[in-house]
Fold Alanine racemase domain protein.
Amino acid sequence: MRYPALIVDREKLKENTSKLAKECHDRGIKVAAVSKVYCGMPEIASVQAESGVDWIADSRLENLAKMRDIDIPKILLRLPMISQARETVELADMSFVSEVDTCRALSKAAVAMKKEHQVLLMVDVGDLREGVWPDRAVDTAREIASMPGLILKGIGTNLSCYGAVLPSPENLGQLVSVADSIESECGIHLDIVSGGNSSSIRLLLSGGIPERINMLRLGESMTIGKETADCTVIPGLHSDVFTFAAEVIELKTKPSIPIGKKGLDAFGHEPVFEDRGLRKRAIVAVGQQDMRLDAISPRDKKTDILGASSDHMILDVTDGERDLKIGDVIEFDLSYGGVLAASTSSYVTKVLL
């Protein structure tokens, strides 16, 4: 095996996906499995597509193109670019929108391609990322619904990702009220009211999701078994679907504090060191070009990450559980951001179990 490596346990991913899809379906909620964290690798996406989800959703058209042959409806999560309107209609069955000008471009592309393209109007209920303000939703929906080639499939919202606003019966209830207003004032029916992402799981399991919410987009909960808002493991799910592995290239006992006059490190920061005397240190062949230090943690809880340059990560292994030697491999758990970083890096080997 080539290192560093991202190792994917597809059976555990299948179990996570199936369990959450069932929890949602039992409550009348359809599910989009979010594939962006693993860059739309079709070998992984196909596992989720076969595990009971209703859509595969991604933020990048490049990823949707890789998954073209997977027989499941696909969603473009990120608001489309006007410059990519034609590609959006070609690669996505549905896209999430908030701008009328973008919808005009999608309409023009759909008509030219003799296709119908579904859109879901995003409404901002407080997190302040994408979406129209609720008092503009009816007028915006009316205009979109009149465009040829487009089907206004429903409305949705995003929570937790930018403003860290938690889903609640109040803000999701506001989204339902907006859906009701659009239907009554525009004379149309909305099939979908999409109530957010993995941060809505706790509300779902506690029975707090308003009745009309009938779609969730789940990424973190399925891929690493965690609830987004507080990063706790959801009971019954696997948090170790993904493993990061790096090879030891140096083992030395050295002082805890660098010797000599200090300036800034390779990334322009002034590092701070604690004097712990002489410590056994391991260097693994991975760095900040490949991985965020705050996104991984050694599975050996007695090993500490001291820091990293662009291509060397330094670990304190003095109290570690293993008697390491050169060439040994150290395994790490990853956060959602860690899976994203490892999946994106072309220097990290992807290994599918």
